[in-house]
């Protein structure tokens, strides 16, 4: 597990492109037979990919977190963006097709990941945050989610928002997690943009062609920067930073948030004239 530390916005003004990519971009999320995790000190979220191939994988983070087992004091959100797979929680198996999700409550001791077909492995994208209370585990079927449809073709941001770990779907201590799918011909997400002074966020971009690139914008509204990102890469967005992007084609992304509350609409909107 890699560790990323919190950054003061004044420091970021002096960052080169390499500095920005080192601190805020995670380039490798999924690798067959491997677990790649990042621990960010922004609200202490852990995120990354679990890609079981021929063998079952399990996350073992005890010494790193000062606990006896990974979810002793944490909750976990999972969305599978690969082939069919299974998550086994304390002996109970949950089958996850592509786009299915799972919320796992604090106190679950044994978490195992398995792919049905090693030639088409599951790609389990995870977000984990500290939790003060244990809530029930809930499987989230993509086909049972009614998406929020927003944006329009004229502004190139027509998209569907699927809420997974959200009060409309299941209870959680502080984690929120969902998936946004842009329609063909649309390339902008979250514009006009906003910040979350009370919450941080991580974006995972995927379903992109090899030569498609996302330009992920970040920084304070009057001091913006950007990351050029490829398929299946993630960006860390501190609470003081905008998080919006555009690309050379349409794409899908998973957003995960944590912080002071679980109010999806708690955001500070940025007027277009304030952007620089």
Spell out the key features of this protein.
single chain; 276 residues; mainly beta; Jelly Rolls; 7-stranded antiparallel β-sheet; 2 helices; 4% helix
Structural notes for this entry:
The structure is a single chain. This protein has 276 residues and is mainly beta. It has one domain (2-274): Jelly Rolls (Sandwich), CATH 2.60.120.10. Helices cover 4% and strands 42% of the residues. The chain is built from 2 helices and 23 strands. It has helices spanning 9-12, 17-24, and strands at residues 2-4, 25-26, 34-40, 45-51, 57-58, 74-80, 85-89, 92-96, 101-104, 111-115, 124-130, 138-140, 148-150, 159-165, 176-182, 194-195, 199-206, 214-220, 223-229, 233-237, 244-247, 252-259, 268-269. It has a 7-stranded mixed sheet with strand order 1-3-4-11-6-9-12, with no helix packed on it. The protein has a 7-stranded antiparallel sheet with strand order 2-20-17-22-15-14-13. The chain has a 4-stranded antiparallel sheet with strand order 5-10-7-8, with no helix packed on it.
Number of domains: 1
CATH architecture: Sandwich
- Can you summarize the main beta sheet? 7 strands, mixed
User: Which structural class do the helices and strands define?
Assistant: mainly beta
**H-E order:** EHHEEEEEEEEEEEEEEEEEEEEEE
Number of DSSP strand runs: 23
Radius of gyration based on Cα positions: 18 Å
Question: CATH class, anyone?
Answer: Mainly Beta
């Amino acid at each position: 597990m890699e560790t990323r530390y919190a950054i003061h916005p004044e420091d970021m003004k002096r960052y080169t492109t390499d500095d920005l990519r080192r601190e805020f971009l995670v380039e490798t999320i999924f690798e067959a037979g491997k677990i790649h995790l990042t621990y960010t000190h922004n609200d202490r979220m852990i995120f990354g990919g679990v890609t079981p191939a021929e063998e079952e994988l399990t996350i073992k983070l005890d010494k790193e977190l000062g606990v006896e087992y990974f979810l002793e004091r944490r909750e976990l959100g999972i969305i599978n963006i690969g082939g069919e797979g299974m998550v086994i929680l304390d002996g109970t198996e949950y089958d996850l097709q592509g786009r299915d999700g799972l919320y796992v409550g604090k106190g679950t001791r044994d978490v195992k990941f398995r792919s049905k077909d090693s030639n088409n492995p599951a790609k389990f994208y995870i977000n984990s945050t500290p939790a003060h209370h244990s809530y029930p585990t809930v499987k989230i079927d993509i086909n049972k989610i009614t998406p929020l449809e927003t944006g329009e073709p004229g502004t190139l941001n027509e998209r569907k928002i699927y809420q997974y770990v959200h009060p409309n779907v299941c209870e959680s201590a502080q984690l929120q997690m969902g998936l946004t799918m842009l329609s063909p011909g649309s390339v902008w997400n979250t514009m006009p943009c906003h910040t979350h002074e009370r919450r941080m966020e991580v974006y995972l971009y995927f379903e992109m062609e090899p030569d498609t690139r996302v330009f992920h914008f970040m920084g304070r509204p009057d001091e913006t920067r950007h990351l050029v990102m490829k398929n299946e890469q993630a960006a860390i967005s501190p609470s003081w930073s905008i998080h919006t992007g555009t690309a050379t084609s349409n794409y899908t992304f998973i957003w995960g948030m944590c912080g002071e509350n679980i109010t999806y609409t708690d955001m500070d909107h940025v007027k277009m004239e304030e952007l620089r």
